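Pasting as-is:
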Amino acid sequence: MTDTPGDEVVKAISVAGWLQGDIVSGEGLMPHIPADVLASQFDGKAPDFWVLASHSCTVHARIFDDAPLVEWVAIKVKKKSYLPYLNALNPRTLQLEIAAKQIFELKIHRRVWTSRAVLPTQHRNAAVTLNEDQRRTFSFWMSHAYNRIAMPDTLVERLKAEIGHDGMQGIAMLVDEFLKRNNHMLASAWVSFNPKCEIQEPAEPYEVLFRFLTKREHARQATELQAELTNMVGVSRQVSEGLIFEGAEVTVLQDFTMLDAEDFVRYNQHDWLSIGEEDEAPAEGEDPD
């Protein structure tokens, strides 16, 4: 049987070994993007790079018409990182530290689709690549834009209360500060809260527990991180009439079990129903606080 043009494209993609997270030049995709899309989303200008966002199984689908399109996210290169944008802490903006003074910044709305047939025409950037950890972070960030948790409004209000009855800042504010300081050493953050629904009665409490998992290379810092966390948020206690804080723990990645995963959900600084006012990084050249 004679191969169709689609079959030829699929073979070429397979031979080249394209994968999610591969990078091409900003100019490379320009001829394949409609002019109105370039004008409305990118001010008619090419970004520094594009990163292939489609899942690798989609990229290599055996029948071309089963996956005729692939998705790309624009990359802007910056010189300075902004901690809240690292490690997929922000669902709207992601920064990846490629090298000294070379930070990739991606925004979830700056993306396009092209025909999958475009892939064999592109040249992957061999000098600038994402390592395996960065590819996993990118993949999680893309999916998290759709499946991040939406906490009950009442719980959000109680967690972010400025001051509890014991004089401490709201638990979530302290937790977020801990994440900002140490996210470079953490693989992920998790939260368990019960009940899962909205509570109308002010005296009926939510029970909340946080878990932070260290990256493997920072496992030895777990005890030190736990001490810092406890100093910031305190120990298990009833924070207010409507909130019982069951504690915050730092553990090594391998100690987080499947049973834990059934009760906990991934927690990011911005996993709230509305993003805070400090969602924007300082302008290039400014020093963040």
